[in-house]
Amino acid sequence: MRFSKAMVGAGLLTGTSAQLHSLAVAAGKLYFGSATDNGEITDTAYRAILDNADEFGQITPGNGQKWQFTEPTQGQFSYTSGDAIAALAKENNQLLRCHTLVWHSQLPSWVSGGSWTEAELTSIIETHISNVVGHYKGACYSWDVVNEALNEDGTLRDSIFSKVLGSSFIGIAFHAAGQADPDALLYYNDYNLEWTGSKSKAVINTVIPAIKAAGAEIDGVGCQAHLIVGSVPSRADLAATLKSYIDAGAREVAYTELDIRFSSLPPTDDGLKTQGDAYADVVGACLDVEECVGITIWDYTDKYSWIPSVFPGSGAALLYDENLEKKPAWTSVSSILAAAATQAC
Ligand code: 9MR
C-alpha cells in the first residue's frame, strides 16, 4: 500500500487506525514483523492477527529451521517444521527471515558430542548449510548464519565450533551460506548488542574481520534486543550502536528478536507506560538509522512468549497481552511509526 498526503490528512495514518508493518513501510523501513512457531499456528484467533500482512509484514520461524530439527541425524534432513512457517509467510505475502544455521544451542548431540578434526567439522558445517540454505533458496530475505558466538566480555563462546575451529568457523559458515543462496542477506545475530560494550566491540573487531578474512561477505548485524523494562538504553545510544556496525562494514542492521520484559509481574499501569516508552525508543533508534531495515518482535503476544519458561516470574514482554489485546506498548510503537510516516510523506 502506498501512502499519500491525502491519507495523512484523512487520518488514515494515525497510531490507532493504521497497522504496524504498513506504518513502518510508510516511514521508510522494509518491515515490521513477528516470530512465530509451529505449536501455535493452529490457534485461529492468534492466526487472525499474525496473518495480517499490514500488521506483520515479516515472519521468523522461532525454532523450525534450527539444526536440531533440520539435521537431527547426520546427513538426514527434515524440513517439516520450517516449511510450515515458510509456507504461512508465503501465503500471507510476508518476508521470511530465516533462523538460524550455526548456533551452540539446539544443536543435536551428534554434532556437539563428536570429536572432530578441523577438516571434519568444516565439512559438517558446509554440508549442513548447503543443504538447509539450498532447500530454502529464494524463500529467505535473510539468514541468521551465525547466532550468539560471543560471550559478554567479547571473547569467543565455548562451543564445539570454537573448540575445534577457533573463530574460523564464522567465516566458514558465511562462505558456505553465500554459495548456497547468493540472494539471501547474511547476518550475524546476537543478544546484548544493542549498546556499546565489550560484546558489540567484538562484533566489530572479531566477527566482521573473521568473515572478511575468509573472503566472505556479511550483509547484516542482527541485534536480538531481548531487553528489560527499566534497563533499556536511550534512543540516541541505541542508534549510535546500530550505526557502529554500519561503520564497521555491515550493509544493514535490524532488531531481530525484540521483547522488553518485566522482571516482576503483574505490571503496573506506570510500568506499562514505561514499557511503551522503551519500545518507542528502540523503534525510534531504527527509524534514526537509515540502514536499519526493520524490527521483528519475538512473537507478538505474551501468550506465546519464551520468557516465563526461561525467567520464571518475568514476562509480559510483548505488544499484545495473553488475551491477544493490544497493550499500551502497541500504541507507543504505532504512534512513533505514524509520526515518522507522516514526516516521510
Ligand atoms: O523462542 C525460542 C524458544 O521457543 C526455544 O525454546 C529457545 C531455545 O533456546 O529458543 C528461543 O529462541 C531463541 C532464538 O532462537 C535465539 N535467541 C534467543 C531466543 C530466546 O531464547
From TrEMBL:
Compartmental location: Secreted
Pathway: Glycan degradation; xylan degradation
Family per record: Belongs to the glycosyl hydrolase 10 (cellulase F) family.
SUPFAM superfamilies tied to this protein: (Trans)glycosidases
InterPro entries tied to this protein: GH (IPR017853), GH10 (IPR044846), GH10_dom (IPR001000)
Domain of life: Eukaryota
The protein's name: Beta-xylanase
Main location class: secreted
Keyword vocabulary terms for this entry: Carbohydrate metabolism, Glycosidase, Hydrolase, Polysaccharide degradation, Secreted, Signal, Xylan degradation
Record-annotated GH10 domain positions: 17-336
GO MF, any single term: endo-1,4-beta-xylanase activity
One GO cellular component term noted in the UniProt record for this chain: extracellular region
One GO BP annotation of this record: xylan catabolic process
Transmembrane residue ranges: none
Cleaved signal peptide residues: 1-18
Enzyme superclass (EC): hydrolase
Protein's UniProt keywords contain Disulfide bond: no
Keyword Chaperone included in the entry's annotation: no
EC identifiers of the protein: 3.2.1.8
The reaction(s) this protein catalyses: Endohydrolysis of (1->4)-beta-D-xylosidic linkages in xylans
